[in-house]
Sequence to fold (215 residues):
Amino acid sequence: MTLPERLAAYHAADGAEEYLDEYTKLHRKISDKRERKLLDRYFERIGSVSTALDLPCGWGRYMPMLRAQGAEVIEADYSGSMVAKVVDVFPNTPLLGRMRCFGHKIPLHDQAMDVVFSMRLNHHLVDPVVRREHVEELFRVSSRFVIFSYFDSASLKNVIRKARTKMGLSKKRPKNTLRRTQVQALAKEAGFKILEDPMLFVVGSGHRLVLAERI
Ligand SMILES: C[S@@+](CC[C@H](N)C(=O)[O-])C[C@H]1O[C@@H](n2cnc3c(N)ncnc32)[C@H](O)[C@@H]1O
Fold:
Protein backbone atom coordinates (compact mmCIF):
# COMPACT_ATOMS: atom_id res chain seq x y z
CA MET A 1 0.00 0.00 0.00
CA THR A 2 1.02 3.63 -0.49
CA LEU A 3 2.33 5.26 2.70
CA PRO A 4 -0.77 6.40 4.64
CA GLU A 5 0.42 10.02 4.90
CA ARG A 6 1.12 10.12 1.16
CA LEU A 7 -2.27 8.64 0.36
CA ALA A 8 -3.98 11.15 2.65
CA ALA A 9 -2.09 14.03 1.01
CA TYR A 10 -3.23 12.92 -2.46
CA HIS A 11 -6.82 12.51 -1.24
CA ALA A 12 -6.91 15.88 0.59
CA ALA A 13 -8.96 18.70 -0.94
CA ASP A 14 -5.81 20.47 -2.22
CA GLY A 15 -4.01 17.21 -3.17
CA ALA A 16 -5.00 17.34 -6.83
CA GLU A 17 -4.16 21.05 -7.11
CA GLU A 18 -0.67 20.41 -5.70
CA TYR A 19 -0.07 17.56 -8.14
CA LEU A 20 -1.22 19.78 -11.01
CA ASP A 21 1.25 22.48 -9.85
CA GLU A 22 4.05 19.89 -9.95
CA TYR A 23 3.82 19.92 -13.73
CA THR A 24 4.92 23.55 -13.89
CA LYS A 25 8.37 22.35 -12.65
CA LEU A 26 11.18 21.76 -15.13
CA HIS A 27 12.06 18.18 -14.07
CA ARG A 28 8.38 17.16 -14.42
CA LYS A 29 8.17 18.78 -17.84
CA ILE A 30 11.25 16.84 -18.95
CA SER A 31 9.93 13.48 -17.73
CA ASP A 32 6.48 14.26 -19.17
CA LYS A 33 8.06 14.90 -22.58
CA ARG A 34 10.01 11.64 -22.50
CA GLU A 35 6.97 9.64 -21.35
CA ARG A 36 4.83 11.10 -24.12
CA LYS A 37 7.45 10.26 -26.72
CA LEU A 38 7.42 6.60 -25.65
CA LEU A 39 3.64 6.54 -25.32
CA ASP A 40 3.16 7.99 -28.83
CA ARG A 41 5.21 5.06 -30.11
CA TYR A 42 3.18 2.56 -28.07
CA PHE A 43 -0.15 3.93 -29.25
CA GLU A 44 1.06 3.87 -32.83
CA ARG A 45 1.68 0.13 -32.37
CA ILE A 46 -1.66 -0.44 -30.61
CA GLY A 47 -3.83 1.52 -33.04
CA SER A 48 -7.41 2.26 -32.14
CA VAL A 49 -8.68 1.43 -28.67
CA SER A 50 -12.31 0.82 -27.68
CA THR A 51 -12.10 1.19 -23.89
CA ALA A 52 -9.33 2.23 -21.50
CA LEU A 53 -8.90 2.27 -17.73
CA ASP A 54 -6.64 5.10 -16.53
CA LEU A 55 -5.64 4.13 -12.96
CA PRO A 56 -4.35 6.14 -11.20
CA CYS A 57 -5.62 9.00 -13.33
CA GLY A 58 -4.29 11.85 -11.14
CA TRP A 59 -5.70 15.07 -12.65
CA GLY A 60 -6.13 13.32 -16.00
CA ARG A 61 -2.73 14.04 -17.52
CA TYR A 62 -3.04 11.14 -19.97
CA MET A 63 -6.80 10.99 -20.46
CA PRO A 64 -6.74 13.10 -23.69
CA MET A 65 -4.06 10.81 -25.10
CA LEU A 66 -6.24 7.75 -24.44
CA ARG A 67 -9.28 9.47 -25.95
CA ALA A 68 -7.23 10.42 -29.01
CA GLN A 69 -6.95 6.66 -29.70
CA GLY A 70 -10.73 6.53 -29.84
CA ALA A 71 -11.07 5.08 -26.34
CA GLU A 72 -13.98 5.50 -24.00
CA VAL A 73 -12.12 6.10 -20.75
CA ILE A 74 -12.70 5.28 -17.10
CA GLU A 75 -10.74 7.66 -14.87
CA ALA A 76 -9.95 6.02 -11.53
CA ASP A 77 -7.80 6.89 -8.53
CA TYR A 78 -7.76 6.32 -4.77
CA SER A 79 -7.92 10.10 -4.32
CA GLY A 80 -11.35 11.69 -4.53
CA SER A 81 -9.84 15.12 -5.20
CA MET A 82 -7.94 13.72 -8.21
CA VAL A 83 -11.04 12.06 -9.66
CA ALA A 84 -12.94 15.34 -9.20
CA LYS A 85 -10.11 17.42 -10.68
CA VAL A 86 -10.26 15.64 -14.04
CA VAL A 87 -13.60 17.34 -14.72
CA ASP A 88 -12.24 20.79 -13.74
CA VAL A 89 -9.19 20.44 -15.95
CA PHE A 90 -11.09 18.89 -18.88
CA PRO A 91 -14.66 20.21 -18.74
CA ASN A 92 -17.27 18.87 -21.16
CA THR A 93 -15.18 15.80 -21.96
CA PRO A 94 -17.34 12.67 -22.09
CA LEU A 95 -16.05 9.83 -19.92
CA LEU A 96 -17.17 6.23 -19.63
CA GLY A 97 -16.90 6.61 -15.87
CA ARG A 98 -15.00 7.88 -12.85
CA MET A 99 -14.35 5.88 -9.72
CA ARG A 100 -12.30 5.67 -6.55
CA CYS A 101 -10.44 2.42 -6.04
CA PHE A 102 -7.07 0.93 -5.14
CA GLY A 103 -4.68 -0.02 -7.91
CA HIS A 104 -4.31 -3.55 -6.57
CA LYS A 105 -8.05 -4.17 -6.14
CA ILE A 106 -9.82 -3.09 -9.31
CA PRO A 107 -13.61 -3.46 -9.12
CA LEU A 108 -13.97 -4.65 -12.74
CA HIS A 109 -14.39 -8.13 -14.17
CA ASP A 110 -11.66 -10.06 -15.98
CA GLN A 111 -10.71 -8.55 -19.35
CA ALA A 112 -13.24 -5.73 -18.85
CA MET A 113 -11.14 -3.10 -20.64
CA ASP A 114 -9.32 -3.08 -23.97
CA VAL A 115 -6.33 -1.17 -22.55
CA VAL A 116 -5.32 -0.82 -18.90
CA PHE A 117 -3.01 2.12 -18.26
CA SER A 118 -1.24 2.66 -14.94
CA MET A 119 1.38 5.37 -14.88
CA ARG A 120 3.47 6.22 -11.82
CA LEU A 121 1.71 4.12 -9.19
CA ASN A 122 3.74 0.96 -8.60
CA HIS A 123 6.73 2.78 -7.06
CA HIS A 124 4.39 4.29 -4.45
CA LEU A 125 3.36 0.85 -3.17
CA VAL A 126 5.46 0.10 -0.11
CA ASP A 127 4.55 -3.56 0.38
CA PRO A 128 6.16 -5.89 -2.21
CA VAL A 129 3.08 -8.14 -2.14
CA VAL A 130 0.86 -5.18 -3.07
CA ARG A 131 3.29 -4.18 -5.84
CA ARG A 132 2.93 -7.67 -7.30
CA GLU A 133 -0.87 -7.65 -6.85
CA HIS A 134 -1.05 -4.30 -8.67
CA VAL A 135 0.65 -5.76 -11.74
CA GLU A 136 -1.50 -8.92 -11.58
CA GLU A 137 -4.65 -6.79 -11.47
CA LEU A 138 -3.63 -4.76 -14.53
CA PHE A 139 -3.19 -7.97 -16.53
CA ARG A 140 -6.41 -9.49 -15.19
CA VAL A 141 -8.57 -6.53 -16.21
CA SER A 142 -7.08 -5.99 -19.71
CA SER A 143 -8.37 -7.85 -22.76
CA ARG A 144 -5.63 -6.58 -25.10
CA PHE A 145 -2.89 -4.24 -23.89
CA VAL A 146 -1.39 -3.08 -20.60
CA ILE A 147 0.82 -0.02 -20.23
CA PHE A 148 2.38 0.67 -16.83
CA SER A 149 5.45 2.01 -15.10
CA TYR A 150 7.50 0.50 -12.29
CA PHE A 151 10.83 1.22 -10.61
CA ASP A 152 13.49 -1.29 -11.66
CA SER A 153 15.50 -2.75 -8.76
CA ALA A 154 18.57 -3.03 -11.02
CA SER A 155 18.43 0.64 -12.07
CA LEU A 156 21.51 2.74 -11.42
CA LYS A 157 19.50 5.04 -9.20
CA ASN A 158 18.37 2.19 -6.96
CA VAL A 159 21.78 0.49 -6.86
CA ILE A 160 23.39 3.78 -5.78
CA ARG A 161 20.64 4.44 -3.22
CA LYS A 162 21.15 0.98 -1.68
CA ALA A 163 24.95 1.35 -1.59
CA ARG A 164 24.77 4.80 0.04
CA THR A 165 22.33 3.53 2.66
CA LYS A 166 24.56 0.53 3.39
CA MET A 167 27.55 2.82 3.88
CA GLY A 168 25.53 5.06 6.19
CA LEU A 169 25.70 7.96 3.71
CA SER A 170 21.94 8.21 3.25
CA LYS A 171 18.95 7.81 5.50
CA LYS A 172 16.48 7.78 2.62
CA ARG A 173 13.93 4.97 2.48
CA PRO A 174 14.66 2.17 0.01
CA LYS A 175 12.94 2.57 -3.35
CA ASN A 176 9.81 0.49 -3.96
CA THR A 177 11.04 -1.66 -6.81
CA LEU A 178 10.30 -4.72 -8.91
CA ARG A 179 12.77 -6.97 -10.67
CA ARG A 180 12.52 -6.97 -14.45
CA THR A 181 12.52 -10.79 -14.48
CA GLN A 182 9.65 -10.77 -11.97
CA VAL A 183 7.58 -8.47 -14.23
CA GLN A 184 8.35 -10.68 -17.22
CA ALA A 185 7.23 -13.76 -15.23
CA LEU A 186 4.00 -12.05 -14.10
CA ALA A 187 3.22 -11.09 -17.70
CA LYS A 188 3.83 -14.65 -18.89
CA GLU A 189 1.68 -16.17 -16.14
CA ALA A 190 -1.16 -13.83 -17.11
CA GLY A 191 -0.87 -14.73 -20.82
CA PHE A 192 0.86 -11.51 -21.89
CA LYS A 193 4.02 -10.76 -23.85
CA ILE A 194 6.10 -7.70 -23.04
CA LEU A 195 6.65 -5.85 -26.31
CA GLU A 196 8.74 -2.98 -24.90
CA ASP A 197 9.98 -1.92 -21.46
CA PRO A 198 12.62 0.81 -21.83
CA MET A 199 13.93 2.91 -18.95
CA LEU A 200 12.55 6.44 -18.94
CA PHE A 201 16.13 7.68 -18.44
CA VAL A 202 19.16 5.49 -17.84
CA VAL A 203 20.65 8.02 -15.42
CA GLY A 204 18.56 9.93 -12.92
CA SER A 205 15.46 7.72 -13.04
CA GLY A 206 14.75 4.08 -12.35
CA HIS A 207 11.34 3.89 -14.01
CA ARG A 208 10.58 1.45 -16.79
CA LEU A 209 7.59 1.93 -19.05
CA VAL A 210 6.05 -1.41 -20.05
CA LEU A 211 3.91 -2.17 -23.09
CA ALA A 212 2.45 -5.69 -22.89
CA GLU A 213 0.03 -7.50 -25.21
CA ARG A 214 -2.27 -10.43 -24.48
CA ILE A 215 -1.24 -13.42 -26.62
C1 LIG B 1 2.36 10.25 -9.17
S1 LIG B 1 0.59 10.36 -9.30
C2 LIG B 1 0.33 9.72 -10.95
C3 LIG B 1 -0.98 10.14 -11.58
C4 LIG B 1 -1.10 9.91 -13.09
N1 LIG B 1 -1.03 8.51 -13.43
C5 LIG B 1 -0.02 10.66 -13.82
O1 LIG B 1 0.95 10.04 -14.26
O2 LIG B 1 -0.15 11.90 -13.92
C6 LIG B 1 0.10 9.04 -8.27
C7 LIG B 1 -1.39 8.90 -8.16
O3 LIG B 1 -1.68 7.65 -7.54
C8 LIG B 1 -2.76 7.79 -6.66
N2 LIG B 1 -2.60 6.69 -5.70
C9 LIG B 1 -1.66 6.56 -4.74
N3 LIG B 1 -1.76 5.36 -4.16
C10 LIG B 1 -2.79 4.72 -4.76
C11 LIG B 1 -3.35 3.41 -4.62
N4 LIG B 1 -2.86 2.53 -3.75
N5 LIG B 1 -4.37 3.08 -5.45
C12 LIG B 1 -4.85 3.95 -6.36
N6 LIG B 1 -4.36 5.20 -6.52
C13 LIG B 1 -3.33 5.56 -5.75
C14 LIG B 1 -2.61 9.19 -6.09
O4 LIG B 1 -3.82 9.67 -5.61
C15 LIG B 1 -2.11 9.95 -7.33
O5 LIG B 1 -3.17 10.47 -8.08
About this structure: The beta strands are 51-54, 72-77, 97-100, 113-118, 142-151, 192-196, 207-214.
